[in-house]
Design goal:
By secondary structure, the protein is of the alpha/beta class. The chain folds into 2 domains: about 160 residues, 3-Layer(aba) Sandwich (Rossmann fold); about 170 residues, 3-Layer(aba) Sandwich (Rossmann fold). The protein has 19 helices and 13 strands. The strands form 2 sheets. The chain has a 7-stranded parallel beta sheet, with helices on both faces. A 6-stranded parallel beta sheet has the order 10-9-8-11-12-13, with helices on both faces. The longest helix is centred in the N-terminal third of the chain and has 18 residues. It is elongated and about 70 Å long.
């Protein structure tokens, strides 16, 4: 029996910062716990002292600020690879030249810059490489032949539903079908994204639908006796949103719905968890424009423990996105037995059944968000039933252990093939 059938493969993650996003960190630690050797290669090392259990960091030098610096670095790295593996260097140089375009000049600083981006990784010899985002896979296309092992990617949302349609991303849209045709497997967080990716050339036979898992021990319901005694007499609808403040998340639509609730006399409070520094001012302006300064509280990024605590103190999760894969915030709320009011975009309807775990409404229609929120405010029993239905849905279908096992199976299959 071959080594790959006896042992889990060596996984190399590329295009991820260090420390990674929470859901990526959980995934990698979970795979390491299953016995995989896991290496994360990153040129965005935010905290070099950060640690993930069982995960090795392979730091890549940051991009040189000047063309002369890039050229010198590429020359030195090329010499190092020439000594170790001249064939790999030849393959890499040929692949970079083939992919050089006008876009390459703007994005990487030309072919030399693209070569410098790929050279540090060319000497690694993993069993399987994974990109959490197609953008990173497009950037590293020259390495696909150099590594000589299966490459896999993830379809998580905007890489399929947004960026290929954005002006100025023509090179990405052109290269995306090549990535999807050359990889050994594609992880899709939802069936809806799998269908969208098929329009760019994804063979459904290579797709693995693995929905985001949640740790039910971290995200769990509030204690059975309910709110603290000091809160029991308060007739306030506590609403929470969790997610980046990017336009895709529909923050303005959520805020407009809150304004309509206030206009109808509902004592509502909205907690917003998540941040993008460049977008925060836009959201703050909307809050002020709608006169919601005393109703809306922005908390920025929160740890998993902080998000879980705030979810348990809430009556409903409001998720007003205009495009999605399957947002982790929804499954986290379900695990906390918190009902969900969300827009039926992307794969949201694959985890929320309208009227069971929450309510689904069309995107970009804040008026449609108001009635479900009113129903949940007026009917605590409905909140409890929907919250329990969400928890009951998560436990058999959407746990993080199931997600890890599915990824391990995917990696084992592509390496065995």
């Amino acid at each position: 029996m071959s080594r790959r059938r006896e042992e889990p493969p060596h996984l190399l993650e590329v295009g991820v910062r260090w420390p990674p996003e929470t859901f990526v960190g959980w995934k990698l630690e979970g795979l390491a716990a299953e016995g995989m050797r896991v290496t994360l290669a990153s040129n965005r090392v935010i905290d070099p002292e950060a640690r993930l259990e069982g995960v090795e960091l392979f730091p890549i030098p940051a991009r040189q600020p000047t063309r002369a610096g890039v050229t010198l670095y590429a020359f030195r790295a090329s010499l190092a690879l020439l000594v170790r593996s001249p064939r790999r260097l030849v393959k890499l140089v040929r692949a970079v030249r083939r992919l050089s375009t006008a876009r390459t000049k703007g994005r990487y600083g030309g072919a030399i810059g693209h070569l410098a981006l790929c050279l540090p990784l060319a000497r690694l010899r993993p069993d399987v490489v994974h990109f959490e985002w197609h953008r990173a896979a497009v950037d590293h296309l020259p390495l696909f032949d150099v590594w000589g092992c299966p490459v896999t990617t993830s379809c998580r949302g905007s890489d399929i539903s947004v960026y290929p349609h954005v002006p100025g991303w023509d090179d990405y849209a052109t290269r995306l079908p090549e990535v999807l045709s050359r990889v050994g497997a594609v992880h899709c967080v939802s069936e809806s994204l799998m269908r969208e990716a098929a329009a760019f050339g994804l063979d459904p036979a290579k797709a693995w639908v693995v929905r985001p898992g949640v740790d039910p021990e971290v995200f769990k319901p509030a204690r059975q006796e309910g709110r603290d005694a000091a809160e029991e007499g308060e007739d306030v609808l506590r609403v929470i949103t969790v997610g980046w403040l990017r336009w895709e998340k529909g923050s303005e639509y959520a805020l407009e719905a809150i304004r309509r609730l206030v206009d109808r006399g509902v004592p509502v409070q909205l907690e917003m968890i998540g941040s993008v520094p460049a977008e925060r001012q836009r959201v703050l302006h909307t809050v002020a424009d709608l006169g919601l300064e005393d109703r809306v509280h922005l908390h920025g990024h929160g740890s998993s423990a902080e998000v879980s605590r705030r979810l348990r103190a809430s009556d409903v999760l409001l998720h007003a996105s205009v495009t999605e894969g399957i947002p982790a915030a929804i499954t986290e709320a379900m695990a906390c037995a918190v009902p969900v009011v969300a827009t039926a975009c992307g794969g949201v309807a694959e985890v929320i059944t309208d009227g069971v775990e929450g309510f689904l409404v069309p995107p970009r229609e804040p008026d449609q968000l108001v009635e479900p929120l009113l129903r949940l405010w007026k009917d605590p029993g409905l909140r409890k039933r929907m919250g329990q239905a969400g928890r009951d849905r998560v436990l058999p279908e959407l746990t993080i252990e199931q997600e890890h096992r599915a990824f391990l199976a995917m990696y084992r299959q592509v390496t065995a093939a």
